[in-house]
Amino acid sequence: MDSLFSYGNLGASDDAPGQPPATALEALRTVFGYDSFRGQQADIIDHVVRGGDALVLMPTGGGKSLCYQIPALVRDGVTVVVSPLIALMRDQVTALRELGVRAAFLNSSLGPAEAREVERAMVQGEIDLVYVAPERLVTPRFLDLLDRTRLALFALDEAHCVSQWGHDFRPEYLQLSILHERHPMVPRIALTATADVQTRAEIKDKLGLTDARVFLSSFDRPNITYRVVPKKSERQQMLAFLRDNHPEDAGIVYCMSRNKVEEVAAWLNQQGREALPYHAGLPAETREANQDRFIKSEGLVMVATVAFGMGIDKPNVRFVCHLDPPKSLEAYYQETGRAGRDGLPANAWMAYGMADVVMLRQMLEQSEAGDSHRRVERGKLEALLGFCETSDCRRQVLLNYFNETLPEPCGNCDTCLDPVETWDGTIAAQKALSAVYRTGQRYGAGHLIDVLVGNATEKVVQQNHDQLKTFGVGKDLTKVEWQSVYRQLVATGLLTVDLEGYGGFRLTDAGVAVIKGQRVVKLRKDPVLERRRGVHDALRRHTARGGSVGGGLSGEGVSRSGARGTLSAADDALWHALKDCRTTLAKAQGVPPYVIFHDSTLLEMVAQRPRDHATFAHLPGVGGRKLERYADAFLEVIRQHG
Ligand code: ADP
Ligand code: ZN
């Protein structure tokens, strides 16, 4: 029984069973310890409590879980939550039990006796939520169990898993319509953070939710600061970024290949930054152990391929770095979206350079997809490159891609914070393009730049390229500037990459039009030096405002203008002491620290310094159960820090 009931048991069942909360607001306050609903939560919960079907489209960190957890408490009967990953179920159930909610899961990690115990609790109505893997759900045994259980609600989490085109496709999701066929009176709520329109339509269709009310939230993540920096020495750049901004925070670094994951993780450790690798080539036990450590520790860096991420509920991932470009803007949004779930400031940082652009173009050229599919791929690539190369607000570009309009520049991305200059690069582009043309459309940037700046290397001389008209016509720009020009020419499709030979550049029709003077070229001026902003630890910056740290996705709690400052020494000492207290409690129970309290709750303790239970109870994230269990320990720490 250990894995299921290892801390506490079925939630509150050891206490005299309390009265279930009568209203949604009461549940929010007494169980979850929050004052008010966010965004559309109140409407969604109201609709579902009344028995309506709902499709909830809300970004990561938007607060989807409450949308079914609260109806589960208010409605009579058992809520069945379909969830695709064991780790996800475990984390959710752990967090719910901490709150005193009667929750359990049923999946392959349970032994038969444990599973039977959960089944019994369902039939007896001793449980409010049960998380189930989709493959178990559709078994005759489970369907029979459902027939004998009083059901409150079906919640279909990560509903995009039903999409065959997405990378999280789970065939069993296609069978979930059986729930509605067998239990037409039980309401259903499907939830996803997927931003793309096609997948949304597919969810409705495949899950038979055509009549469900759709709740669409903004997909903006205002607390995430987006940055894309030109690559020079990517590791050093990243290390500097981490030192400046996240000296002790947890985060994820995405790389494309398994080898690179291993190398970067090892290198970070050498640099004194604790890091672990994660990719599909590692043994399952190693992957699981590394993931577990990431979730349970405070300042660890996970270096990973895209195999890592789905089902990571850790709310205080403070940064997501990309050392290689993501596959698409959808992927980028999803990967960076793992930062800052708790609504506190977080960073999305990408290093991007010429080699990446060339590689992406090559991948597209090599793709064996049919014509129409290829057009889609091309469109996605152009969108991604457009995002990387933009001199406009990155958030506007990103949201626009998901058909959402942000009326004003966001003020919280690199191009807003450090506006990028653009210049009329038509003449430079003509020179760069004619160098390609005159050398026979066979060479990459290195050789072409030698020709442009008049560098008579052995190769240049050997090929007689020092005799060309373009030899030396580009002395007005530095090598680095020419790199930037070529990168942008490839990114904007004026050049393409030859697949035969050595990846040399070739002109496209658009490129020819530039040479002929039929087209102007606007280029961005890459920032020469990355400016080191004294932002430091995002959390500190945040408390320095002196205000409440709540707000989350509503945007109010988020400093957009880059308010700066640091915690005072006393606050800093208290903050670390509170974190230590949390770690000790978490270790004793074998749960992740954030399950005890989120960072935002600890930061409120620093800001408000509650002295007694009454004031402690007002902190966001402190419900009845947590007040009872943890107030004394944290109040003692606060007392010691005067
Ligand atoms: P999602 O599942 O949409 O990614 P979660 O349900 O994990 O988001 O919620 C994100 C964070 O916001 C969690 O830390 C959660 O406790 C917090 N949260 C959700 N709703 C509220 C609310 N009404 N008030 C304060 N915090 C909230
Ligand atoms: Zn912006």
UniProtKB/TrEMBL annotation:
Domain Helicase C-terminal: 234-382
Name of the protein described by the UniProt record: DNA helicase RecQ
UniProt similarity note: Belongs to the helicase family. RecQ subfamily.
Class of this enzyme: isomerase
Species whose genome carries this gene: Azospirillum melinis
Helicase ATP-binding domain location: 45-213
Catalysis: reaction(s): Couples ATP hydrolysis with the unwinding of duplex DNA by translocating in the 3'-5' direction
Domain of life assignment: Bacteria
GO MF terms, alphabetically ordered: DNA helicase activity; hydrolase activity
